[in-house]
Amino acid sequence: MSSPDLFRIEGVSFTYTGPLVLDDINLVLPSGKFYGIVGPNGCGKTTFLDLLTGCKKPCTGTIKFRGKPLSSYDKRDLARRLALVPQEFDTGFGFTVEEIVLMGRHPHIDRFSSPAEKDWQAVDQAMAAIGIEELRDRYTNTLSGGQKQRVVVARALAQDTQVLLFDEATSSLDIKYTLQIFNLARNIVYNEGKTVIAVIHNLNLAAAYCDSLIFMKDGRLQQYGPTPETMTAAIIAEVFDVQAQVSIDTYNQAHQISFQYFE
Fold first, then answer.
1. How far apart are CA 12 and CA 219, in angstroms?
2. What is d(CA 85, CA 181) in angstroms, rounded to the nearest whole number?
3. Helices and strands (H, E) in the chain, number of each type
4. Distance CA 227, CA 11 (A)
5. DSSP assignments along 145-196, one per residue
6. Which tens digits make up the pLDDT trace of 163-213?
7. 169: Cβ–Cβ under 8 A, 6 or more apart, which residues?
8. Is the pLDDT at 69 greater than 90, yes or no?
9. What distance in Å separates the CA atoms of residue 242 and residue 189, rounded to the nearest whole number?
10. Rounded CA gap, 132 and 48, in Å?
C-alpha cells in the first residue's frame, strides 16, 4: 500500500476580516519534491504557507498531512515534522547565533532536559552547511540582515524535519548566499528524500530549482504542475499580467524568463 500524500488540501478558504484571502484551494502535494509557490504580491502565498504549518486554521475546508487532519497534530509533534523559515524573524537581543540554531532542537529535547550530544551535532552540522561557524558566539543584534537570515535557515536545518517551508527566505540575501540556500534545499530533496515548499519571488530561481510550481492569483489557485509545463509565457501573462519569453538557458540548463521592459 502506497504512503499517503504529504498534503491534501480540499476546499480551503481563509479570511482575516472581510474579503477572502484564500478562496477554495484544492491541491495534492506528494512528498519528496521541491515546490515553488509564486504569484503577485498580496495573492495569499504567505497565508497559504501559514495554513500548511498549522499557524493558521482554514475558515472552511480541510488540510490533511500524511493522511491525518493537520489539526490533529499537537504543536510539538508538528515541529518535529515541519520547519518554517520566515521572511522576517525577531532573533532578539539576548541570544547568540549558537543559541538561535539550538532552538531548532527544542522539539526533540524532553522538557526540563539538557541538549544531548546528538543535538549539538545537529547544531554543528547546520552551521557548517550554511557556513556560519565563525559567527557562533556573536549576538544576533550585531549581525547584518543577511547574516541573521542565514542563522534562521541554519535553525530550520538543525530542526531536522522531513518538510522545510521557506517564505521568501532568501529575499535579504545576496546572489551568492541565495544560490547556496537553493542548492542546499535542492540537495536535501534529491539526496535525502525530503520536501521543500517555498514561496519564491524570483521566477527565474523558481524555474531553475523547483520540480513543480503552484501559481496563485487573487487568493485562488491559478495553475499547478511540473515546472516545464507551467512556467510558460501564457501562464506568466495570465498570473502576473506581463509579457515574457521562456527559454532554456544553456549556461545552467534550466528554464529562464526574459521580460519586456516596455508596455
1. 11
2. 11
3. 9, 12
4. 24
5. HHHHHHHHHHHHHHH--SEEEEESTTTTS-HHHHHHHHHHHHHHHHHH--EE
6. 999 999 888 889 999 999 999 999 999 999 999 999 999 999 999 999 999
7. 85, 86, 87, 149, 152, 153, 181, 198
8. yes
9. 31
10. 30
Residue spans of beta strands (DSSP E) within the chain: 7-14, 22-29, 34-38, 60-65, 68-69, 82-85, 163-167, 195-199, 212-217, 220-226, 244-249, 254-259
CA distance 245 to 258: 5
pLDDT tier for residue 2 given thresholds of 50, 70 and 90:
very low
Task: Report d(CA 57, CA 53) in Å as an integer.
Answer: 9
Burial string for 155-192 (b: 16+ CB within 10 Å, else e) reads bbbbbbbbbbbbbbbbbbbeeebbebbbebbbebbeee
Type of residue numbered 134 = E
pLDDT digit string (tens) for 73-108?
Answer: 999 999 999 999 998 777 666 899 999 999 999 999
Rounded-to-integer distance, Cα 242 and Cα 156, Å: 35
Gap between the Cα atoms of 254 and 263, Å rounded: 27
Q: Give per-residue pLDDT as tens, 38-61.
A: 999 999 999 999 999 999 999 999
Signed CA dihedral, 73, 167, 180, 35: sign only? positive
Q: Which amino acid is at 90?
A: D
Lateral strand order in the sheet of 220-226: 82-85, 163-167, 195-199, 34-38, 212-217, 220-226
Does residue 263 carry a pLDDT above 70? no
Query: Which residue matches cell numbers 512556467?
Result: 231
